[in-house]
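Dear Dr. K.,

Following up on our conversation at the group meeting, I've run the structure prediction for CutA1 divalent ion tolerance protein from Natrinema pellirubrum. I'm pasting the input sequence below exactly as I used it, so you can double-check it against your construct before we proceed with anything downstream. Let me know if the numbering doesn't match what you have in your notebook.
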Amino acid sequence: MPTVYVTAPPEAATEITETLVEERLAACVNRLEATSTYRWKGEIHRDEEVVLLAKTTDDAYDDLVDRVLQLHPDDVPCIERFDESDVLESFATWRADSVE
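The predicted C-alpha coordinates came back this morning:
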Protein backbone atom coordinates (compact mmCIF):
# COMPACT_ATOMS: atom_id res chain seq x y z
CA MET A 1 0.00 0.00 0.00
CA PRO A 2 1.34 3.43 -0.87
CA THR A 3 2.10 6.59 0.99
CA VAL A 4 1.86 9.61 -1.29
CA TYR A 5 4.27 12.50 -0.75
CA VAL A 6 2.85 15.87 -1.80
CA THR A 7 4.20 19.36 -1.24
CA ALA A 8 1.79 22.30 -1.21
CA PRO A 9 1.68 25.97 -0.31
CA PRO A 10 0.38 26.44 3.26
CA GLU A 11 -2.78 28.16 2.00
CA ALA A 12 -3.72 25.08 -0.08
CA ALA A 13 -2.59 22.32 2.30
CA THR A 14 -5.65 22.31 4.56
CA GLU A 15 -8.14 21.97 1.71
CA ILE A 16 -6.11 19.19 0.07
CA THR A 17 -5.68 17.33 3.36
CA GLU A 18 -9.31 17.54 4.44
CA THR A 19 -10.66 16.71 0.99
CA LEU A 20 -8.54 13.56 0.69
CA VAL A 21 -9.73 12.27 4.06
CA GLU A 22 -13.37 13.40 3.68
CA GLU A 23 -13.63 11.75 0.26
CA ARG A 24 -11.99 8.58 1.63
CA LEU A 25 -9.09 8.79 -0.80
CA ALA A 26 -6.68 8.72 2.15
CA ALA A 27 -7.05 7.16 5.57
CA CYS A 28 -4.77 9.79 7.11
CA VAL A 29 -2.64 12.70 5.97
CA ASN A 30 0.34 13.93 8.01
CA ARG A 31 1.39 17.56 7.62
CA LEU A 32 4.97 18.76 8.10
CA GLU A 33 6.14 22.33 7.60
CA ALA A 34 9.15 22.73 5.33
CA THR A 35 11.20 25.27 3.44
CA SER A 36 11.75 24.22 -0.16
CA THR A 37 14.55 25.47 -2.36
CA TYR A 38 14.15 24.73 -6.06
CA ARG A 39 14.82 25.96 -9.57
CA TRP A 40 11.83 27.21 -11.57
CA LYS A 41 12.11 28.89 -14.97
CA GLY A 42 15.83 29.48 -14.53
CA GLU A 43 15.62 31.08 -11.08
CA ILE A 44 16.23 29.74 -7.58
CA HIS A 45 13.17 29.98 -5.31
CA ARG A 46 12.79 29.43 -1.56
CA ASP A 47 9.25 28.96 -0.32
CA GLU A 48 7.51 27.83 2.81
CA GLU A 49 5.56 24.68 1.99
CA VAL A 50 3.72 21.89 3.72
CA VAL A 51 4.73 18.28 3.14
CA LEU A 52 1.69 16.01 3.05
CA LEU A 53 2.07 12.26 3.59
CA ALA A 54 -1.17 10.63 2.51
CA LYS A 55 -1.78 7.01 3.48
CA THR A 56 -3.89 5.36 0.79
CA THR A 57 -4.46 2.08 -1.04
CA ASP A 58 -3.44 0.83 -4.47
CA ASP A 59 -7.06 1.04 -5.63
CA ALA A 60 -7.50 4.68 -4.50
CA TYR A 61 -4.09 5.94 -5.63
CA ASP A 62 -5.07 7.16 -9.13
CA ASP A 63 -8.18 8.93 -7.81
CA LEU A 64 -6.11 10.56 -5.06
CA VAL A 65 -3.61 11.88 -7.61
CA ASP A 66 -6.43 13.19 -9.82
CA ARG A 67 -8.00 14.98 -6.83
CA VAL A 68 -4.70 16.54 -5.76
CA LEU A 69 -4.17 17.79 -9.32
CA GLN A 70 -7.65 19.40 -9.24
CA LEU A 71 -7.01 21.16 -5.92
CA HIS A 72 -3.31 22.04 -6.14
CA PRO A 73 -2.46 25.60 -7.22
CA ASP A 74 0.99 24.83 -8.72
CA ASP A 75 1.54 24.21 -12.43
CA VAL A 76 3.78 21.23 -11.62
CA PRO A 77 2.89 19.86 -8.17
CA CYS A 78 5.20 17.42 -6.42
CA ILE A 79 3.35 14.10 -6.11
CA GLU A 80 5.48 11.03 -5.37
CA ARG A 81 4.45 7.49 -4.48
CA PHE A 82 6.28 5.41 -1.89
CA ASP A 83 5.30 1.75 -1.64
CA GLU A 84 5.81 0.12 1.72
CA SER A 85 7.01 -3.43 1.86
CA ASP A 86 6.73 -3.87 5.61
CA VAL A 87 3.79 -2.32 7.47
CA LEU A 88 2.31 -3.23 10.83
CA GLU A 89 -0.64 -5.49 9.98
CA SER A 90 -3.11 -3.68 12.23
CA PHE A 91 -2.21 -0.36 10.56
CA ALA A 92 -2.56 -1.84 7.08
CA THR A 93 -5.99 -3.20 7.99
CA TRP A 94 -7.11 0.17 9.43
CA ARG A 95 -5.88 2.00 6.32
CA ALA A 96 -7.68 -0.37 3.98
CA ASP A 97 -10.89 -0.08 6.00
CA SER A 98 -10.68 3.74 6.01
CA VAL A 99 -10.24 4.18 2.25
CA GLU A 100 -12.97 3.26 -0.17
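Two things stood out to me. The two ends are 13 Å apart (CA to CA). The chain has a mean pLDDT of 95.

Best regards,
J.T.
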